[in-house]
Amino acid sequence: MGEPEVKDKELVGITTTVPIEVIFAAGCQPVDLNNRFINSERRGEYIALAEERGFPPTACSWVKGIYAAVHDAGIHTVVGVIGSDCSDNRCLCEVLADEGIRVVPFSYPYDRDARALGTEIERLMEAFGTTPQMVEKWRRALFPFRKLAGIVDELLWREGLVSATEANMALLGATDFYPEPGFYRFFVEEIAASTHRRTPRLEGIRLGLVGVPPMIDDLLPFLEQHGARVVYLETPRQFACIQPARDIVEQYHRFTYPYGIMARLEDISAQVEERGIQGIVHYVQSFCHRAIEGIVLRRHLVVPVLTLEGEKPGKMDGRTQTRLEAFLETLSSQV
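and the corresponding structure tokens:
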């Protein structure tokens, strides 16, 4: 199989990272509804629309944004992750189905059983009318693009030649390769090609960012402007599936985000050591169960952890700035 191309194909929305190779193999283009929402200039309108249609103000803004993104993009099929990811996604999928959207459920097994995961992927193939052979062809065709995302990650933490903002965009773009893989490759290669004109930045407090992808627009630039280097983006790196795997099941079995904090902790701890991380910023959404995971992180990680909560997309508020400045000052005093 040569260069993968998807043009003028049906758009299939995804509520989080799923085996998109199945969607490509079915001749469709996956669309990460999170990216569609957060990158929209009208994201505030998205949240307002969801609330107008009955979503409570206390509901997660990601869920409300996903709901509106489905309708704004004219998407008729959504793969909804209803197990081991977000407790609100099940209700979101029920609302979408009630409105005439075809919802294809997908679950990551709670116990991270590889055979159960394989069964879920087989069900997904059946729902989209494709075969294991076609899925494997697409998996192999897409891996060079995932490898590019891994190169950007290396340039971030090892070489200090790309910013955390650039790396974040490159890694999150690998969740769906929208609008098509060739465009993604051009975008990431442009980032990598520009590095020869830059001076490596290796100084500064080495931070890791873990948890839910943040809605705070200026979080990464703020940290880098205040003497820190964000050298680890846990969730975007996991979403990109940059590690080689033998098959589709192993690829998504290695994907830790949906399997709970203990599965994630193993990867986070390893990256803290390998990347020389001095502190962790743990971001969660307000009213989200993932905030409780901070207890485990603080118990087991050997570096300080600061948990931040965000509610709606936008700029950082003064209280958050003050907390981050105090955290960085504390880390500086320990160096």
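(Above: one complete record from the training split.) The mean pLDDT is 94.
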